Amino acid sequence: MKIRTLVMQMSVLGLSLLMISGCKTKQQKSTEAMKIKKEVVGVSDGKEVILYTLRNANGMTVKITNYGAIVTELTAPDKTGKFENVVLGFDRTDSYWKEPYISNCCYLGAIVGRYGNRIAKGKFVQNGKDYVLAINNGPNSLHGGIKGFDKVVWDSEPFENTDGQGVKLSYLSRDMEEGYPGNLSVTVYYTLMNDNSLKIDYDGSIDQACPVNITHHGYFNLTGNAKTNILGHEMQILADRYTVVDSTLIPTGELRPVAGTPMDFNQPHPIGERIEQVTGGYDHNYVLSDGIMPIRKIARIKEPVSGRVMEVFTTEPGVQFYSGNFLNGVLTGSGNVQYNDHWGFCLETQHFPDSPNQPLFPSAVLEPGARYKHTTVYRFGIE
Ligand code: GLA
Questions:
Q1: Atom of ligand 1 at shortest distance to CA of 348?
Q2: Is residue 322 within 6 Å of ligand 1 at its C-beta?
Q3: Average pLDDT over residues 58-84
Q4: Which domains does the chain have, with CATH numbers?
Q5: Pocket flag, ligand 1, residue 142 (CB < 6 Å)
Q6: pLDDT tens digits along 9-52
Q7: 3-state SS of the chain?
Q8: Hey, whose CA ends up nearest to atom 5 of ligand 1?
Q9: What is the mean pLDDT of the segment spanning 103-123?
Q10: pTM surpassing 0.70?
C-alpha cells in the first residue's frame, strides 16, 4: 500500500515536472510567440519599414522601427505595477517621415550619427584634408547633417539570447555621405533585457579615418504616457565637470566644475528647481571620463508620483543632458499628447560636442582596422 502511494506520488511529481519542462500550456506558448512581433508598416526610400514589438519576461515592451533605428514606444511599470509608455514618440510610424516639423526638430527616439551633437561651422580637418558638412543648426552641423542616421532605413533582424530579445540594425554609410570620409559600417543591437533594461550596443568599422559619434536620442518621460512635463523628475548625474559652450552651443574648450552651480546633479535635484538659472535650459555635455571607460552607472532619475526610476550606464566619456528646450509644442505625439517645452529629457551618451575641432577632448576618430564600440543601458525600476 505504502509502495503504491509512493509510486503514485512519484508519477504525479514526474508528470508535473514534464509539464514544466516540456509540455507548454497554450498560454505559455502564446506568451512566447508574443516575445517578438514583426510588422511591415510602410515604405521609405523604396525600402520596407518594419516595426518590431518585443516583450520581456516581466511584461515590459518596446517598439523599434528600422526607419532611423527609432524606439517609438517603451513601457515600464509604475509603483502599482501599471505599465505605461515612458518615451516620446508617434503612434504611426509614417509620422517619423511625414510629420513636417520632425526633420529639423527633434530626433525623437532615434539613433543619431555619423557625428551626434554639433561640429562647429560644419568643418573639420582629418589627415590634413578639409571636410565641409551641411549646416543645419544655426551656424553649425548637428546630428550627422541633413539626412543623418535618424532618417535612413536600416537593415534589420530580430534576435533572442539569454539576456532577452532584441533587434539588430545595420547600416552602411558610404564614403562622403553627408560630407564624411570613409565607408562606415555600423550595427546597433537593441536588447530588451529580462532585468527591465533596454541595452544598446554599437559596433562599427571604417576604411578611412573619420570622427564617429553615434548615440541614442530617446526622450524620456517617466510620468507614464507623458502626462506632464519632466520638470518634477529628480535627476542625478554622477559627473563633476561639464563642457562650457558659447551661444551656439559649441564648447569653448573649458571643462568647468559643476560644484556650487545649478549644473550640479551629483545629489538628486528636480530638473525644474534651478532650470531658470541656466540660459536656455539644460543642453550640456557632462564629462564622465577622459576616454572610453568600463561600463558604469552615470545617472539616476526618479519620477516621484509614479515611483518610476531609470538608471543609465555607459562606456562613453560624455553625456548630453538635454531638457527638451526646443520641443515648443510643435509635435503631437503618441496618445494625442502635445509635446510642449520640457515634455521629455534626453541623456545622450557620447563623445564631447565638436571634438573634431578640440584637440584636448577625447578623440572620436575611428581609424581603419579599429572598432567603434559603445554600450549604453537604460534600466527601469521603482522606488
Ligand atoms: C540635442 C542637442 C539639442 C537639440 C536636440 C534636438 O540634444 O544638444 O540642442 O538640438 O538634440 O532638438
A1: 7
A2: yes
A3: 98
A4: 37-229+330-382 (2.70.98.10)
A5: yes
A6: 333 333 222 222 334 444 444 444 479 999 999 999 999 999 99
A7: CHHHHHHHHHHHHHHHHHHHHCCCCHHHHHHHHCCEEEEEEEEECCEEEEEEEEECCCCCEEEEECECCEEEEEEEECCCCCEEECECCCCCCCHHHHCCCHHHCCCCCEEECCECCEEHHHEEEECCEEEECCCCECCEEECCCCCCHHHCECEEEEEEECCEEEEEEEEEECCCHHHCCCCEEEEEEEEEECCCEEEEEEEEEECCCEECECEEECCECCCCCCCCCCCCCEEEECCCEEEEECCCCCEEEEEEECCCCCCCCCCCEEHHHCHHHCCCCCEEEEECCCCCCCCEEEEEEECCCCCEEEEEEECCCEEEEECCCCCCCCEEEHHHEEECCCCCEEEEEECCCCHHHCCCCCCCEECCCCCEEEEEEEEEEEC
A8: 106
A9: 93
A10: yes
Residue 222, ligand 1, Cβ within 6 A: no
pLDDT value at residue 103? 63
Could you tell me the distance, in angstroms and rounded to a whole number, from the CA of residue 190 to the centre of ligand 1?
A: 22
Specify the pLDDT at position 64: 98
